[in-house]
Amino acid sequence: MISKKLETAFNKQINEETFSAYLYLSMAAYFHSLSLDGFAAWMKMQAQEEMSHAMKLFNFLDELGGRISLLTVKEPEKNWKSPLAAFTAVSRHEQYITGCIDGLYQLAGSEKCNPAQIMLQWFIKEQVEEESTAAKIVLRLNQIKDNANGLWMLDRELGARQHKT
Ligand code: OFO
Asked: Which residues contact 58 (CB under 8 A, 6 or more apart)?
């Protein structure tokens, strides 16, 4: 059985992950508007990954006998001033999500919920990867600056992203 406090926090995290999916889909639309279809494909894949995170939490809360309660998903931004600004926003967002996961993990500890702590270790590791990937792309975009060829090459590279196995 899961405590009410932890149940509420899990429901909030389901909402955060769903918002992440929504934010990245909005970025996909932004990149399509710039004809950067590789960037857009990367974002669409990221959005799918975020929905799989939401579902992991959803299924886990259900298994633990918690009551799932879906909250309003806020409207994401629609425009960024450049690809660099968009990926800087990704990087900041992932740092924010890491903070949410860390808080949830600590709450699972103080509520003495070992299964939740064990499950959340997967998310802790995942956040290391999410932050590192975003930081690397921000670095590349900073190096590219206004170089159209560099942007085009990165677009091709990001478009080749494969689903995680
Ligand atoms: Fe779910 O990791 Fe990003 O937000």
From this structure: 14, 68
Residue 38 CA to residue 155 CA, distance in Å, equals: 5
* 130 alpha carbon – ligand 1 mean position (Å): 7
Convert the pLDDT of each residue in 99-144 to its tens digit: 999 999 999 999 999 999 999 999 999 999 999 999 999 999 999 9
SS3 118: helix
Domains, the chain: 4-159 (1.20.1260.10)
- Whether this prediction's pTM lies above 0.90 is answered by yes
Q: Is the CB of 17 under 6 A from ligand 1?
A: yes
CB of 50 shorter than 6 A to ligand 1? yes
- Which ligand 1 atom minimizes the distance to the CA of 53? 1
Rounded CA-CA distance 126/104 in Å is 14
Residue 16 Cβ < 6 Å to ligand 1: no
Q: Distance from the CA of 66 to the center of ligand 1, in angstroms?
A: 22
Cα–Cα distance for residue pair 70/19, rounded to 1 Å: 12
